[in-house]
Amino acid sequence: MIKMPLKNIVRELKEMKDVIGGVSRRGIEAKHWSIRNRSFIAPDVGPFEPMQEGQWANLPPELLLDIIRRVEESETSWPARAVVIFCASVCRSWRDIAKEIVKTPEECGRLTFPVSLKQPGPRDAPIQCFIKRDRATSTYRLYFGLTPSEDENDKLLLTAKKIRRATSTDFVISLVADDFSRASNTYVGKLRSNFLGTKFSIYCSQPSNNVGFQPNTRQSRRFHAKQVSPRLPAYNYVIASISYELNVLRTRGPRRMNCVIHSVPVTAIQEGGIAPTPTSFSQCVDDKSPFITISKGKELAADFSSPNLSNIPVSKQQFVEALVLKNKLPRWHEQLQCWCLNFKGRVTVASVKNFQLVASVEPWLNVPASEQEKVILQFGKIGKDIFTMDYRYPISAFQAFAICLSSFDAKPACE
Length: 415
Known about the structure:
Blueprint lengths: L5 H27 L28 H14 L7 H7 L3 H10 L3 H4 L18 E8 L4 E6 L10 E10 L4 E6 L12 E7 L5 E6 L32 E8 L12 E9 L56 E6 L3 E3 L4 E3 L14 E5 L9 H5 L3 E7 L2 E6 L5 H10 L9
Antiparallel strand pairs: 1-2, 1-14, 2-3, 3-4, 4-5, 5-6, 6-7, 7-8, 8-9, 9-12, 10-11, 12-13, 13-14
Helix pairs in contact: 2-4
């Protein structure tokens, strides 16, 4: 029986992680220092010598399971939740047990590993986040939490950088705040608009598990398969499309948008429905694997950088209807003389960007009215360059963030 306090164990795990990480970085940097400035992309390599596992790797499985379970249950919020990550970083046996214990956001309402950002949110209550906009650098950072904290200990989830092009605008989304290269293993996906800013496509670095869509055939693959490490993303898969209704004369009131989530079937919101839940953050794409196609009669989200939007490929394969999200209609407030929505205190500043999205379903699906009225995603302003983002099942943090980013792009034809 071990008498060492749990806090001492966690402290030693942190120290061991730092030592192992330092040795690994020195070995890799020494090997690649001479080729750092070359233009081609080299595969990732491990350290010269295999790492020796420490004494904690030899713990009995029953004791190891108990330790990680106690850590997971005690550390419920960030930054303390990083201790769970440290446990999973010790060795392979610790990582395997941590994966078994840590539940998905749908089950526990917590965000832990990077894959959590692509898994559906909880069913009962939304996950509350906020977005910081930096106008000087055209970056948008998604943090986990209610509001920004004073000590800057907010958990950074995702970062997007706005890149203006001749015929479109791209929002490149990354796990870190200083690397937006598609050749990086921190690349998550991107959002692309058309010239008018009325239509958007959400691209993901990895395909969905069960819903058909096709990578952008013109620009999705920038590198030859042999030039890119197998661990790096070589494709962009269309997982959703967003469209804003034209409102040139400004006679239709607030913005109106529709989101077609191709990677989530509409049956997910039915009783007993299941949304796709990735189990790993792998960005590996097999060059020989066939592309998944989209169903007949369903438009594939086009490459909006092209001036011709009519040539949209259509497949002959049938599959289930995709989930469609629509604006929750606001009401006109006579005393305030403005359109209003009940954000339950999460939005405090009036803005054209504020919105709430609910599911748009057909009567034959037999979805209860309460489920149809449930807000799946809400986004709104609370201060200068600070916005809240609350999302829930069946969409993920990445999908919700990309939808909110579409609200930041200029839309001269919509308001």
